[in-house]
Amino acid sequence: MLAQVRAMLAVLDRRWPGAARRLRPHPIVEMASWPEIRLRLVDEHIGSRGCAVSGSYHPELTPPTLLVGRSLSHRRRAFTALHELGHHLQQTDVDLGERTFEASNPLRFQEKACDAFAAEVLLPDAELARPGLTARDIVAAYESSAASREACCVWASRHIRGTVALLDASGTVLFASGRGISGSPLVRAALRSRGPVSDSTGDAAWCDGYLIAVLRVGSSA
Ligand SMILES: [Zn+2]
Question: How many percent of the chain have pLDDT more than 90?
Fold first, then answer.
């Protein structure tokens, strides 16, 4: 899967040089400027054709057309548009297509590659991953991309030895990659102060009214 995503990024860069960097904050604006494809926001329910996201890809139209649900949030729309771009790349590049058909379940493989491609464009490991990622880094990744808060936290949890959590302002845990969040003095202090907090156990930072906390391994129950 990783090899396919790398190959997709290479095809992307060959066709639209430097596009990945522009897609990251504004995928829909960027794709709308490409004459080779058409991106349409649509009201009606879409998402048939095996797409788990609320979008679809139509290679039979000229130019090939990507439909994305208008009712989605700005960030869901961005992910969906990139997912559908993943279908376009895999269905219009011979090598990418061949790799798809080598998989035991080509449709499933292509679908998963689309998700992985969208995630990698929004949150590129090579650029963002580093040892000692903090909650502030996660907020910065959110602010510099069209990735959702949840996606940023899930992504960061793969690179942090410890727990990454997303809470609402009342302290309800919306996502946690491990335990020890609710009772954490760090999280309680951040909820009380409504500002960024850090101590020897980790750090917490606010992100559009939500709290992101990182508790390093060995620092909590
Ligand atoms: Zn799909």
Answer: 86
Domain that holds residue 131: 127-216
What's the maximum distance between 2 C-alpha atoms anywhere in the chain? 58
In a domain, 221, yes or no: no
CA of 18 from ligand 1 middle (Å) equals 24
Residue 103 forms part of a structural domain: yes
- Give me the phi and psi of 15, to 5 degrees please: -80, -40
- Per-residue pLDDT of 122-171, as tens digits, reads 999 989 999 899 999 999 999 999 999 999 999 999 999 999 999 999 99
- Structure-model confidence comparison of residues 52 and 75, the more confident one: 75
CB-based contact 213:186 (threshold 8 Å): yes
Of 91, 122, 153, which residue is a domain's last? 122
Say whether pLDDT at 47 is over 80: no
Is residue 39 a contact partner of residue 13, using CB atoms and an 8 Å limit? no
Q: How far is the CA of 81 from the centre of ligand 1 (A)?
A: 10
170 CA to centre of ligand 1 in angstroms? 35
How far away, in angstroms, is 88 Cα from ligand 1 center? 10
Q: How far does the centroid of ligand 1 lie from the alpha carbon of residue 186, in Å?
A: 40
What separation in Å is there between the alpha carbon of 148 and the centre of ligand 1?
A: 18
Question: Is residue 200 situated within a structural domain?
Answer: yes
Distance CA 40, CA 32 (A): 9
